[in-house]
Please model this.
Amino acid sequence: MKTVEEQLRIIAKGVSILVDEDELRNKLTEFIQNNRPLIIKLGLDPSAPDIHLGHAVVLRKIKQMQDLGHEAVIIIGDFTGKIGDPSGKSKGRNALTDEQVRENARTYFEQIFKVLDKKKTTVRYNSEWLSKLNFEDVLRLAATTTVARMMERDDFQNRFTNNIPIGIHEFFYPLMQAYDSIELNADIELGGTDQTFNILMGRTLQKTMGQSQQVAMFMPLLEGLDGVEKMSKSLENYIGVYESAKVMFKKVMEVPDELILKYFELATDEHPDRIEAIRQELVQGKNPRDIKYALAEIITSLYHTEQEVIEAKEYYDKAFIKKAIPDQIPELAVKAQSHLVEIIPLLVENGFIKSNSEFRRLVQQNGVQLNQHKLKHIDSILLYGDVLKIGKKRFVKIIWEG
Amino acid sequence: MKTVEEQLRIIAKGVSILVDEDELRNKLTEFIQNNRPLIIKLGLDPSAPDIHLGHAVVLRKIKQMQDLGHEAVIIIGDFTGKIGDPSGKSKGRNALTDEQVRENARTYFEQIFKVLDKKKTTVRYNSEWLSKLNFEDVLRLAATTTVARMMERDDFQNRFTNNIPIGIHEFFYPLMQAYDSIELNADIELGGTDQTFNILMGRTLQKTMGQSQQVAMFMPLLEGLDGVEKMSKSLENYIGVYESAKVMFKKVMEVPDELILKYFELATDEHPDRIEAIRQELVQGKNPRDIKYALAEIITSLYHTEQEVIEAKEYYDKAFIKKAIPDQIPELAVKAQSHLVEIIPLLVENGFIKSNSEFRRLVQQNGVQLNQHKLKHIDSILLYGDVLKIGKKRFVKIIWEG
Model:
């Protein structure tokens, strides 16, 4: 079994906020002394999106703790899900039936167990205990906190200040989540930084109820392939855990260089020492593309078999490196010192594109490459021999006229 | 059956705020058309104080409506009472047992049925429906209102502004009271003006739930015998409904003249025409003492038998009028044009009082009379033949010296 400090180092890797380290150290010391695994809580919404590497950040962190000997409990918030929005105001929050909740949960599990260790994971539905609370129990729960405390939550504060209604029932969502921690006697709860208030509420409630307070662990948000926005399905900047090895490998290769280290920290289970070594390599000028290739291999391996990874690499090498540019491509003669924007009429004239506007749209959608790099500025200066790739199949090589 | 407008006049007598008159008119019209009595709701706290005429203001108003053909439902808030203060912070709000609640309620009933018509009164305990609500029901109830709305209640607003904690459970007290109105399908709810927020919440909830909104009827506070403070047991300025006819009669005779009309309005069931006639008599200079005598007879009759009232009057006449001043009383010779304050040393010297300070204390406690009126100003000018009554038994007549 690893030492307390070694466990602490692995657990703290990539974590945004840890509340607090001393408590975690004490819990780990007890774990080693009594061989009682820590109970790690993760609450999941049963609205069942496809899980991508952004969602997987907390799951990977749990997996790392499972590898250290701890136990995970996944809470499916079916109680809240079944109620929907009791004010009836939000159309998006319709009540789900038992059947729907169970079906969504099944889809979820198929995905989360691509990350978590099934043997060290329990799944519980919070309706199990929450549906049993009566009015008196609810009042006792409500009495554990105050209006002022609730108003510390940013969204409540903002809405109150801006006269946007806050339903009284909304105060119960943090309280319900906190109550789940009581039921589990949770040692650690994880979440994104957007979960700060709710997870800290669990600590408060545990203290009120005489339990040892859970350590709160907040993970940073992972930016998607655009390098700017949080990874999300709707922005199409995501890498889904259920995607094929080929797609996954290729997508990791599209991660912006600046995010390589962050992806190593949050999307892999690599040891902090390894990550430090990679940081050194980057500092010393090693080609980011080679490091990213290693990253793609590691991430793909986390979700696919060895054979699938080999095939994904072969496919990538063939499609995107070796044959990235066809042997024979048409040439376009332009004036030396042309800016790209100046030759658009020539591109239209010669049938490479249909119109000026089509070309601009393709550029905006990152559908144009200049020498295998995304074209960002439409008035880049063209050099002799530059290769433009327009859309998926159209190539053109720039030469000087005359 | 009385006409709508006549009923409205009787019901509105003495009411501080009525929300709103048109709705009440409609309800009364329906009552007359369909012979469906209106359901009048009154919530009572099971903490069981002795009821005095101040508490009886709402009860008398209900009695007047019962006489018009309507039905009262008394809600005993045992659910709240049994929970006590779930935050455990207020020592005054310990949880009551079922037994205590029932015992308190019994004491209460003995007193309220000295006012209300038992045949037209139903008593219900709100634990009957509130204890059956589960978490989901509670969330639906909570969703009917907003934090901003709750903050309109003065005490919440003040506490929030002054950083005095408000427990989340406290938001449920108005909601529970409102839910009681739903359960009853109440047509009218009565309360003191301090109940404004809670009773109006009932209207809101009924509207949300698709019920006809209850009319809210707020009664003014009744000042006690000191003419200044709200009648209350702790201030000893009260007339209890359980006091003997003799005590009650005598206490009504101590009501300050300025409050005669208010007592007629709020502490009797007299018709508005009669009250208007009395107002005219007062304006025309009729001796307030005679009108008060009639008031004392009316109020005492509301709580005692005819025979008891006769005996009370006889007792009062004998003890406080006919023998108000003994035949033989000692005389004290003072300088003409003396102020009372100037003769205090003489009063001490002659053994009428023990000390200057005793006299001043007695004056403060209304224990000194000058010619059968309470002495208010210690520097009143004394006239020849004035009779001072000091405490219960000491009399002294003022004469001029020399």
About this structure: Chain A has 18 helices and eleven strands. Chain A touches chain B at residues 79, 82-83, 85-88, 130-140, 142-148, 150, 156, 160, 163, 165-169, 171-172, 175 (CB under 8 Å). The CA atoms of residues 41 and 189 of chain A lie 5 Å apart. The mean pLDDT of chain A is 89.
